[in-house]
């Protein structure tokens, strides 16, 4: 499977089918509220602080922050479809969340323009090699103000290695079923997702990957980008025993601070 994963798979996966197959995570409003509670408790932002939701998809965390009174929240994601979904919801709910389509490795946003940047829901590690993943951390460092903080929500490598499942199956609704096949090599999980509709047949057969990081390795990567402090917390929002949620089953949160401020 490794040789057949397109290095740019992330440009094509995140569409209307993704919102269907991953709805139990990325469209779960109660989970989103709990995750935003955690962001507030951990980062302790003021409501006027500029915040960037990097690789933020349809902006579920940012929209929740905006609904709580945060006034300077920006979402950046590569998927134009998800950006459009977020903008439509913001319009319906009267929220001023800003949505931008772009590449997290080179956003084009101004330097030192955000007090807080977060990457939620295992949206980091989409490249098999460290170099491209490191570019996202370097870009985040550039965009952070002195004293600003970066938070990464990652798969828990230790849990993933100990509980690796080569196959999974879950039913989305009466019509759609999702089957995933996985292989692991050198801390990379290569996955094939097959989405079947009883009415329409196969509606997706897509391969993708997730790069796993140990606390030590991700900390070294973050320090090498220039951050002055790094902390790691395992078992974030664990769903162990509640089914196979892939990289969202058991997670690790990494928080880093840029010196100064």
Task: Describe the structure in your own words.
The chain is an alpha/beta fold and 261 residues long. The chain has one domain: Vaccinia Virus protein VP39 (Rossmann fold, 3-Layer(aba) Sandwich). Helices cover 30% and strands 31% of the residues. The protein has a 7-stranded mixed beta sheet with strand order 3-2-1-4-5-11-10, with helices on both faces. Helix 3 (29-43) packs across helix 4 (60-67). The longest helix has 15 residues, at 29-43.
Strand-helix topology:
Blueprint: H1 16-21, H2 23-26, H3 29-43, E1 51-54, H4 60-67, E2 73-77, H5 80-93, E3 98-101, E4 114-119, H6 130-143, E5 144-155, H7 157-162, E6 167-171, E7 176-185, E8 188-197, E9 201-211, H8 215-224, E10 229-236, E11 251-257
Parallel strand pairs: 1-2, 1-4, 2-3, 4-5
Antiparallel strand pairs: 5-11, 6-7, 7-8, 8-9, 10-11
Descriptive terms for the model:
261 residues, alpha/beta, Rossmann fold, seven-stranded mixed sheet, four-stranded antiparallel sheet, 8 helices, 31% strand
